[in-house]
Amino acid sequence: MRTQVAIIGGGPSGLLLSQLLNKAGIGTVVLERRTREYVLSRIRAGVLEWGTVELLRTAGAGDRMDREGIVHDGCYLSTAKGMFHVDFKKRVGKQVMIYGQTEVTRDLYDAQEALGATVIHEAEDVALHDVDGDAPYVTYTRDGQEYRIDCDYIAGCDGFHGVSRPTIPESIRTEYERVYPFGWLGILAETPPCADELIYANHPRGFALASMRNPNLTRYYIQVPLTDKVEDWSDDAFWAELKARLPKEVAEGMVTGPSIEKSIAPLRSFVSEPMRWGRLFLCGDSAHIVPPTGAKGLNLAASDVHYLFEGLKAFYQAGDASGLDRYSEVALARVWKATRFSWWMTTSMHRFPDQSEFDQHIQESELEYLAGSAVAQAAMAENYVGLPFDE
Ligand code: FAS
Ligand code: PHB
User: 3-state DSSP call for residue 52?
Assistant: First the structure.
């Protein structure tokens, strides 16, 4: 088989890139290790930056998001001294869309099907070949049969544990990492949200986040030690701890119920440079991971896809390779700004095991300053709604 762009990974990055390229008349093949059902069973991000919203609309995969998504003007932050609102719309004239990653991925799968795009599931043993040459190709097996796809370019959209990043020789790669000494225990419950917008809570017992998916589906998180296991946490224990960390008036009005999903996610900041080697381009989690505190993971995948799509479109439609040549530099500039913001939100909102009283006062004064400063709130809002893709 031959195609123009072979895409490894059928998550949000791979599917969005495939959708945009196919709509521009550029041929792709997506190789996904798992079944579609497995990919759609993952519960992950919930907040879309406005740039991501517009990109999904451009890709022709935004109709259900526009019908069912919830537009938020801002979010709340709560500390031991009370809760305050940061109004993104008032501060920077932009909003965010609450619409789960699962739904984004489902919409992209449906849009790919409608276009007749090639998405191959249960593709195993994917391997990338001659990536630094002029004739790269990909091999994989399926049902015991080996296949080969010759292509012009390969997009590594296969996430943190994928095969693409390791294809770049260690002598070429530089990796930067910070692992946080805690995780997020998250649940999904068929209950109404406890507030009209998200609440990020800094509490002496630890961080908590009250989020949502729709008027009858909520997503809550509490910071837990890395040693905790999901089975250590009954639903009752989760609800009690969540209420202890949220403002009293919110906790009193909270509707609880049985969890329909419960999982613990580790938190890390990770960036691998460069995001291009020869004919291979890394996109999304294959190149970088951010702690979910800033709601940046899925959105960074979208901006990577924007840069790579524009570069490939210019190459195929006008023979202009400048976008491809600058891809890594341009994508990493935005990745590092989002990595900084996610680090700032994480270090400001969580309790660190070795936190001193001094650290505690610094955290509290950071949030008190934010509560009282329109300029500080504008800076937070600018980053939370998403920095422009193109300066
Ligand atoms: P993905 O990991 O989503 O997709 C990669 C795809 O490649 C997967 O479908 C995988 O099966 C496939 N694949 C892997 N190896 C392969 C191989 N060798 N061959 C073929 N296919 C292969 N972000 C937020 O913004 N907010 C959140 O709250 C949030 N919570 C998260 C919770 C968890 C547990 C995790 C893991 C991530 C979370 N994220 C969150 C980040 C997440 O949303 C990612 O940023 C997003 O999934 C990135 O999309 P992709 O780059 O497509 O990677
Ligand atoms: C979510 O709804 O899953 C969510 C929202 C905001 C975050 C992280 C996760 O910062």
Answer: helix
